[in-house]
What does this fold into?
Amino acid sequence: MVSSKDVAKIAGVSQSTVSRVLNKPDSVKPKTRNIVLHAMQELSYQPNLIARSLVTNSTNTIALITGTLYNGFYVETTTSIINMATSRGYKTMVYFEEAMPLRDVVDSIRGHKLEGLLMSSIKLDDPIFSEIEKSGIPYMLFNRRPAQGGNYVVLDNILAGEMITRHILDLGHKRIAYISGDIHVSTHHERKIGFERVMKEAGLDVQPGMLQIIDTKPQEIEKTTLKLMHLAERPTAIICGSSAIAFSCMDAILSMGLRIPEDISLAGMDNVSMASHHAIQLTTVGNSKFKMGEIAADNLFEMIEQDGTFNRPRQIVLQPELNIRKTTGHLKKF
It folds into this structure.
């Protein structure tokens, strides 16, 4: 069996350097790290993870609790987090919020030796948050945050709601519908605040039936969209609280034989990569400069590698950008 001693000999480094490449790769110069990794590949070296965890009292494993996979935002962030974790020498245990109650997920995680926790599934007043804080485990939340405190990376969601609403108003629309997910989570709660604030500033009331707060499963979004489109005075524009909602909404509108934006304008939020697909071209608000999941993961690894010496909340708020594409247009005058 190939040992770390063999790798060290081939790479021309000490055995402790090989150990650092395995356990704390960022502490090794990139050139040296690449030489060691090449030697491992050449010798088909497989580290004994069980022995390593016993020696270091570490499994180099993190947990990721994330949202539903029919939302492209979570597909993208899950992929980028796992890739980043792997490149840093960490394994990732992934849990999806729709698979089991959050309480059961957290209880399950407690049965494992974990270095840290990444989480996008938390409500504003979720009692589980205080338990995570008291556990002492390094953690980062992303996309959603609790009502008070915590370590998180989020978009400025109130501003995002304001920006997308102003864009729609600037196009001449006044009869605007808004479809939101659960307002007990910060993302939807704050985006709705932004929408309502700008409507009020414009002297416009949100008309009866135009504000829909729903379960964001695709079939519920379709049902809600069809209901809006069959109102006696249907909206001339629909703003959706996420890109995932907007995609299902778009599908329902097109199934009616209507055109976007000629018959109705449509906008979403998050700016997932699919939004810019040439066949979709969804107008959205989001942040394309930084990947939220990767920022959260990078901060988590830094906490872990500081051996718990971090002592202040890490609260990162990303600024939204308006991405005007082909699903929004000026209100037609008839």
Observations:
- The chain is about 40% helix and 15% strand.
